[in-house]
Amino acid sequence: MRGFSASCLDAASSAGADYADVRVTDTRTQDISVRNGIVEGVESSTSFGFGVRVLADGAWGFAAASDVTPDAAARVARQAVAIAKASATVGSHRVELADVAPFDDTWSGTCAIDPFQVGLDDKLAVLLAADAAMRAVSGVALTQSEMGFVTVFKVFASTVGSYIEQRWSESSAGITAMAVDGGEVLPRSYPNSHGGGCFQGGFETILALDLPGHATRVATEAAALVSAIECPSKQTTLIIDGSQVALQVHESVGHPTELDRVLGDEAAFAGTSFLGLDDIGSLRYGSDIVSVTADATIPGSLGSFGYDDEGVPATRDHLVRDGILAGFLGSRESAPAISRVSNGCMRADGWNRTPLIRMTTVSLEPGDAGSLADLIADTDDGLYIETNNSWSIDDKRLNFQFGCEIGWEIKDGQLARMVKRPNYTGITPAFWGSCDAICSREAWQVWGLDNCGKGEPMQVAHVAHGAAPARFRDVTVGVGR
To answer: Rounded distance, CA 356 to CA 423, Å?
Structure first.
């Protein structure tokens, strides 16, 4: 790969590129699903190819191919340069890049048990056992369990002088039991909805979830939702579990702090942002206890890596510090707009896509409110909700509405009646400004998210968010449908 990468860069420079980088990516995936006791699908895929990105005459060019050969290296590099020069004739500004040092390095993610060395029968045994336990609970109409695995080997090289090899594995799994109430499906999921738990690691992360051990509880709660009261519509104190706090961070902090959105470069598909460049250091994003970091160095997180797809090392940076906007997620191109260098947030969904600014592990830092039980005990009256079921947020990431799978009223510091279809709404700065308690480090965990869409053509990024249960005052809640 070192010689092949050098061929790409040499061809690009000879064709007139002022800067060039090449990514060679080899990806393997497997997805397994079981529904109502029947193996619904087993899908496997491999993808191998390379992409060359160049800067010529102040404009970007990109080309890619699946035939990783010397002839293809020269052809694709020249094509990328031709595209850049054509783009320069219609571009409105010249691209300038922040400096980055050259690196010659390797990086590997954590993985104790290679998921592709575990037999299909062993994986199905876990899913079928969980599915059987859920179906044994009276009142459950539908059950679903699933697993997914990814391994990636990636080479990055650039005319700056970098040559970087990285490899990692990702594993995900989850179960869902569904009851039916008058034609409306009431799901209950573990460890999270929308695909379950997602980790950087091997099959050991799946075993640690103990899906069969949680199946009966999940199914029992799904069945109980049928007779639960609907969430009252009112303004109240709201405690949100860690998985939903993680999604709240994703939608209302992570996306609006992507600098390409702020600059208007991502308006076509994903929307822009309610934030402006001058808001750094002055805009109050939340209460004094709200601090949000972007950290690509956390072991086992889906948002961690050694280097991004511009060869920038993984970093930890504050987006919000003590309630005040502190920075943005940036790239070598965008960071100069705020007089900074890249904080390593450029990633591409495969070898045939150009990198975009993507979240890493964007986390709400833990507080000092103790455990979830401590936080509930400290709340006289309110509502506790768990596990996302739906979300809606405007294209500037300002006004939002989230629905969860389940909730409980809080009375005198204890959980009381179960409620179904809980929903809450808010405006981003006001909502985070109402946060008055966050559970402590012991209740904090990283939640992986493997379906974040952005760009045209759309790219799906794997990101993560650290979060603990948190309390918000005077939140409007009601019934989500």
So the answer is: 32
CA distances to 116, 126, 228, 288, 398 from 119, rounded to whole Å, are 8, 12, 41, 50, 46
Q: Which of 227, 242, 275 is the last residue before a domain boundary?
A: 227
Same domain, 129 and 155: yes
CA 286, CA 421: separation in Å to the nearest integer?
27
Question: 440 exposed, middle or buried (CB, 10 Å; 0-12, 13-18, 19+)?
Answer: middle
Distance of CA 10 to the CA centre of its chain: 35
Stated pTM of the model? 0.96
> What gap in Å lies between CA 359 and CA 411, rounded to an integer?
38
- pLDDT at 265 (0 to 100): 86
Strand-pair partners of 325:
320
Whether the pLDDT of residue 456 is over 90: the answer is: no
E-strand stretches of 218-264:
229-230, 234-240
In whole angstroms, what is the distance from residue 453 CA to residue 64 CA? 21
DSSP readout, 173-223? EEEEEEEEETTEEEEEEES-STT-EEEES-HHHHHHH-HHHHHHHHHHHHH
Strands 234-240 and 229-230: unpaired
Q: Does residue 159 sit in the same domain as residue 276?
A: no
Write out the residue range of the structural domain in which residue 417 sits.
230-479
The sign of the dihedral angle between the CA atoms of 109, 256, 267, 426 is: positive
Please check whether residues 368 and 464 belong to one and the same domain: yes
Q: 99-109: b or e for each residue (b if 16 or more CB lie within 10 Å)?
A: ebeebeeebeb
pLDDT, tens digit, for every residue of 12-59?
999 999 999 999 999 999 999 999 999 999 999 999 999 999 999 999
Q: Final residue of a domain: which of 205, 227, 249?
A: 227
Same domain, residue pair 207 and 332: no
| Total domains in the fold of the chain | 2
Helix (H, G, I), strand (E, B) or coil at 245: helix
Dihedral through CA 121, CA 124, CA 126, CA 132, nearest 10? -130
Q: Which helix (H) or strand (E) holds 415?
A: strand 414-420
User: Would you state the structure tokens that stand for residue 280, as one six-digit string?
Assistant: 């750094």
Q: Which two tokens stand for residue 159?
A: 């005319």
Cα separation of 341 and 98, whole Å?
6
CATH value at residue 28? 3.30.2290.10
**14 and 149 together in one domain:** yes
